[in-house]
Amino acid sequence: MMNILLGVGNEANGDDGIGVWVARNFSHEGWRSIDCFTVPENYTSEIKRSDAKKVVIVDAADMGLDAGEMRIIPKDRIGLAGFSTHSLPLSIFIKHIQETKGVDVILIGIQPEQFYSGISEKVMEAGKSLLEILRRGSFEEIEVL
């Protein structure tokens, strides 16, 4: 049994690259980490073929919070958070994965500060903190939006 981490975003857009950064820097037993760029739907077949019990999606999300704050975003609140770089809305992707695979999907948003010149210090600190939370499996440390 394993879990899958999907890092979503675009590094060319500053803080929008935090999901990709987390995916590239996360390694832990029982996890498969995938850098999805801005197209997590391209990995639907891989997720379906896996024995994953949990899928965690990490992305920059405009939630109206201070830069670097992170939240678990329930599926009924996805519309309240802004995700600007995806071709398919994350809500549709998540619903499809849950219905076809029957896995638990957790969406973690990190509030961006800026969308230019690399990942900002506050957002990078949040990404590093999230790596540790993922390794511990202690999702309860993250507030729900």
Backbone shape: globular
Give me the count of strands: 5
- The number of helical runs is 4
Summed up, the domain count is 1
Write down the CATH topology: Rossmann fold
Q: Could you name the ranges where pLDDT drops below 50 across 5 or more consecutive residues?
A: none
Overview of this protein structure:
The chain has 145 residues and is of the alpha/beta class. The chain has one domain: Rossmann fold, CATH 3.40.50. The protein contains 4 helices and 5 strands. It has a 5-stranded mixed sheet, with helices on both faces. Strand 1, helix 1 and strand 2 form a beta-alpha-beta unit. Helix 1 crosses helix 4. The termini are far apart.
Secondary-structure topology with pairs:
Elements: E1 2-8, H1 18-25, E2 31-37, H2 44-49, E3 52-60, E4 70-72, H3 90-101, E5 104-110, H4 121-136
Short description:
It contains four helices and five strands.
Structural features:
single chain, 145 residues, alpha/beta, Rossmann fold
